[in-house]
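sorry for the late reply, my laptop died twice this morning and i had to redo everyting from scratch. anyway the thing you sent over, i finally got around to it. pasting the sequence first so we're on the same page, its 150 residues, then the predicted structure underneath. double check i copied it right bc i was rushing
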Amino acid sequence: MGAFRPNAKRNRTTVPRAVTLIRSASLSDVAEYAYAATAPAESRLIFLAGACPLNEDGSTAALGDYAGQAAKAIENMLAALTASGASLQDVISTRVLVASTRQEDLVAAWEVVRDSFGEHDVPSTLMGVTVLGYQGQLVEIEAVAAVLDA
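ok and here's the structure:
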């Protein structure tokens, strides 16, 4: 399964964004994300449930594949964002849950998430957890977005 890349270059109109990513020269630049983000008071916040790697029929996608499940979770998160009138560029923070105690499994999932967001490197937390809710589920991605309604 190829990585889902919603940030591929395409013709888009410029849309005013509510999210401002914050960087700090006093913190390490090793992290692959901004350390903080803000949204103005007039923005509408969107709190997404954890995006799971589920197919339309409810089955778990990409069994045994951390990267494949991360890609499917991103795809499902994008559908929820679209239904809310938002895009990945409107996400203000994420939490990536990976059912593993192995750092390399967390990294495999994280690399897909990081690449999907491209230059919009929102604050994120990557966590290894014991188990997730669906049979065979290895990855779940929570997100909060902020949009400026016209």
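Confidence is low (pLDDT under 50) at residues 1-13.
thats about all i looked at so far, will dig more tmrw
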